[in-house]
Amino acid sequence: MHVRRIGAVAAAAVAVVAARDLVQKRHALLRNFPVIGHARYALETIGPELRQYIVTSNEEERPFSRDQRSWIYASAKEENNYFGFGTEVDVEHVQGHAYIKQRTFAAGALPDAHDPQAPLPSAKVLGGPRGRAKAFRPASAVNISAMSFGSLSGAAITALNKGAALAGTMHNTGEGGLSPYHRNGGDIVLQIGTGYFGCRNEDGSFNLDRLKDVVASAPVRAIEIKLSQGAKPGLGGMLPGAKVTSEIAAIRGIPAGKDCASPSRHSAFGDVDSMLDFVELLAAETGLPVGVKSAVGEMGFWQELATLMERGDRGVDFVTVDGSEGGTGAAPRIFADSVSLPFRMGFSRVYGTFAELGLTDQLTFIGSGKLGLPENAAVAFALGADMINVAREAMLSIGCIQSQKCHTDKCPTGIATQNPWLTRGLDPASKSTRTAAYLRTLRKELLKVSGAVGVAHPGFITADDIEILNGDYEARTLAGVYGYKDGWGELGPQLADELTALLAAAEPSR
């Protein structure tokens, strides 16, 4: 009797769904195939998950393959991150694949790449060439990239910041402002976007006094002015009203519950000349190094910036070049797929612009855009990067499963959502140790690669030490592919000597 009742209820439910499907006019599929048509939508919903675990090979999936994610997960958990039985990459045929050329003999003493505490400092003093009052040498050449509270949950930001503190790295706030979750011990790079969140007037214009108050309230080491980012270059950010809680509204200085749209361009300056005035104002008022972050499109901006900096009276302390591979910001498909240059192409053009004028030792070059994998990071250093920032890789280290639901507020792991039920699943204490382990492992891997090339630091890897596959059975060096001249991508003699001495001095302590 009980079974019959259950069957009757189920049949009634199916009949109701069938009747609804037959009369609704929104979906032709359901009108023609009532009830069973829902299976198509269910499969479509879980399509990314099915492809991850069933359909694609270990090297096929994008933006991060299964092998890449597995390496990050294992590194974060301090598990065995080695791979056995040879590579799955079709090594002779994968167009654009980078191959690092190992050396038989080393140029000098090499650090212990198996030591998790082995130092990997920046090769340059941030703000040093321009004499900033609070210039410093970053202790880590690997740092956490810009991801705002609002886009990410408070639990996720807390885990990342605590992880940054444990690993001795810096943590970029993103343009959403400095939140309480950024105040867990990690050194801060404060990003200022076009919305001036946290340092704005009611009309959205920039407020210097509020900026100074924010800087004084936390361990802010540098200021980054965001001009654009790889995920949505030339497009202002959008935080849906559903994500704009009262807490986020208070931090950003915006109305709660309403869509928060960032302008596509800054109002505090309108050209390169006035931008440099703005940079010098911030540096003078705070004493901090000040730089810019941008994806790379037309080159006129960079050429004018380098030309004005050649005079020596004004300039940025660092340039963060973001590749179009960047992806932590939700964006229209056209922007994600087809606006701005990929990292290697964009970075090499920017670096070359400054190299032509002999300015590369006068500022720090930072790369971002899927550089949290050792092979990509090695290429970035060879092209002239002094530091790299990691974003999605850091998200993966705290549990991201690449469900690609960041823009829906339904992130299943509680990272890219403000839903209290989902965020409760993310434990910042345990996840922070995973972030730290991942960051340390990435630095160790870079030291291993450097040692294979015969140098003590990835900053010494040159554009001739890596080749890029260019069609079947042919390869060209990075220098050849990107038109580098002799010495480009390399540290100047004085900087190289300083870095060598620094590494040598650190050796006995280990």
From TrEMBL:
Keywords: Oxidoreductase. SUPFAM superfamilies: FMN-linked oxidoreductases (SSF51395). Its EC number is 1.4.-.-. Coiled coil: none annotated. It holds the Pfam family Glu_synthase. The keyword Oxidoreductase applies. InterPro entries: Aldolase_TIM, GltB, Glu_synthdom. Residues 139-455 form the Glutamate synthase domain. The keyword Oxidoreductase applies. GO terms for molecular function: oxidoreductase activity. Belongs to the glutamate synthase family. This is FMN-binding glutamate synthase family protein.
